[in-house]
Amino acid sequence: MPGEIWQPLTRELARWRQASRSADFWLRDDDAIEPTAALDRLLATTVAHAVPVALAVIPAPTGTPLAERLARENHVTVAVHGWSHENHAPQGEKKHELGRHRPRDIVLAELSQGRARLQRLHAGRFAPMLVPPWNRIDADLLPHLAGIGFSALSVFGVPRPGPMRMLNSTVDIMDWRGNRGGRDHAALISEIVAQLELAFRGEGAPVGLLSHHLVHDEVAWTFLDRLFEVTARNDACRWRSVGELLA
């Protein structure tokens, strides 16, 4: 079992339990395209702990092999990860697939095609939720998403009022600006506890873990395993599916 470093989280969950309350967690994993050993590891650890996972799949390059691999996984929901995860921003700007760098009609047509493709491939586990690549989307696109079949949007950070339902990831386990591996466990635990404290006061959203199975190192994998050990069968918290949270 996890040791002393996890005590801040276990203490916070004990507070929730003493108040007869339960905190919501959810997991989003990005950039799925095809079956891989890393995907197998993600699916194995989540099914072992009964943790639902929202898999953000890139529509353009994916196909039937991934659909066949996921067909036997009842705990997976598939969301739409843009169209091709291609950067259209000029050099010097932040990466952006769904920005103002192309005509709006072209961007919306790609998203509509991506939604239809994933719904066809993953009919039994598909959720009409858009996950923009790099968690960025031009605000002018948002009012048009419902018209092409989307009912929810998932980026990173605190959800803000907008034209459609938002279900955001709030804790990224990867150190993108540093070693590009898993982040320090103590820092991640501190972030989760801070979000639980806000939620306890009625000011927060579900704790949304963000992972990227294709680039995990052992630091990232170990964090997920130990987080699931602490939380998955703790009656002070619940790992929820996208369908449950959006309902």
Automatic annotation (TrEMBL):
It comes from the Bacteria. This is Nodulation protein B. The lineage of its organism: Bacteria, Pseudomonadati, Pseudomonadota, Alphaproteobacteria, Hyphomicrobiales. It comes from Mesorhizobium alhagi CCNWXJ12-2. Gene3D superfamilies: Glycoside hydrolase/deacetylase (3.20.20.370). SUPFAM superfamilies: Glycoside hydrolase/deacetylase. InterPro entries: CE4_u4-like, Glyco_hydro/deAcase_b/a-brl. GO terms for biological process: carbohydrate metabolic process.
